[in-house]
Structures are given as C-alpha cells and as structure tokens.
Amino acid sequence: MLDIAGYGYLGILVLAFTLNLLPFASPSNLIIAVDAALLTQLEPFLIGILIAAAASSAKLIHYYFMFFMRRALKEERRAKLERYGSRIERWGSVAIFVAATTPVPDDPLIIPLGLMRYSPVKLCLSYFSGKLLIATAGAYLGGMGGFFVGSLLGMDALIAISVVLTVGVTVALIKVDVDKVLAKLHQLVKRA
C-alpha cells in the first residue's frame, strides 16, 4: 500500500475511496482496514468509519451511473426492471448488507439495483452498515496484529507482510470462482 501513515485519516479515506471506485476489481475492505491499522497508529473505529464511508460513496457513484444509464434502455425494458425492483424491495436491504459484509463482489448487486431505481437511501444505509461492521473488525484485527507483529519483527517486516497479504488475497479473490465455492458450500450444508 501507499505510505498512508504520513497522511493519516485523510490518506485512508482517499485510498479506500479510490480502490472502491474500481468496479469488480477492488480489494476487500477488510484487507484495506487491516492494512490501514497495521501501518498506522490511528484509532481502529475511526478507520472503520472512514473506510465504510469511502466504500459507500464509491458504490453510490456506481449506482447513480447505472441509475442514469437506464434512460438509454427501451421503455419496455425499463418497465420490466421496475417490476423486478418492486419484487426485491423487501429483501434488497438484507442482500446489500450481506454483500457488503462478505468477500462476495457487490457490484453485481449494486449495478442492477441502480437500473431498477432501488432506493438510494436504503442502499447507502445498508451498504454503510455492512462495510462499517467488516472494516471496523478488520481495523481492530490489524491493530492487534500490528502491535504483536510490529514489536517482534519491526515496521519494515510489517509493511512487507501487509503488502504480501494484500496481493495474495486480491489474487485469490480474482482467481477463485465464487460460484463454485458457494455451490460446494451449499452441497455441504444439504448433506449436514
């Protein structure tokens, strides 16, 4: 990661926002929070709030882009999307919260919701809540890990470990077929 320690909270906010603007390719916000806490001595809860706010803002940009791109669709297709939107109204907030708290990519959910004109307030609140939970947990884990690993190995080793973990997790998320993993988990649950 970049030298966010020198920029403090503003650096974390800008970095998280920039990374979350990358559709389908941004690293997990859990990893961003762990790295931010490992590399700084900042308050973990504030790190979680900033990362959740940055991620939510970036996803709202994706949402509104699709919201306005909807105009390019034919009237028949827009009517069909509105019917779909009314069907998911009840469970949309739950789905958004789950997508925000898990490593499952959330863009495949956010983008269609923009086309369906799902409530941006509900989307933002659900997404922010999920990201706040996962980013705060990551920041506290990173803070604890930074304390123990940093005192044993030193700050240079801590930065190297952070970079290796970030790259490793990002590559794994790109290479792993999430649908296959979910199908296998579903089979295991059915057997149990």
Could you characterize the architecture of this molecule?
By secondary structure, this protein is an all-alpha fold. The chain has one domain (4-191). 79% of the residues lie in helices and 0% in strands. It has helices at residues 8-20, 29-39, 44-69, 75-88, 92-101, 107-115, 120-153, 155-175, 178-191. Helix 1 packs parallel to helix 3 and helix 3 (44-69) runs antiparallel to helix 7.
Summarize this, please?
By secondary structure, this protein is mostly helical. The chain has one domain (4-191). It is built from 9 helices and no strands.
Rg, Cα atoms, Å? 18 Å
What is the terminal-to-terminal distance?
41 Å
Total number of domains: 1
Structural class: mainly alpha
What is the element string, with H for helices and E for strands? HHHHHHHHH
Q: What would the average pLDDT be, to the nearest integer?
A: 77
Largest sheet: none
> How many strand units?
0
Q: Helix proportion of residues, in percent? A: over 70%
How would you sum up the global shape?
globular
**Portion in beta strands:** under 5%
How many helices does DSSP assign? Answer: 9
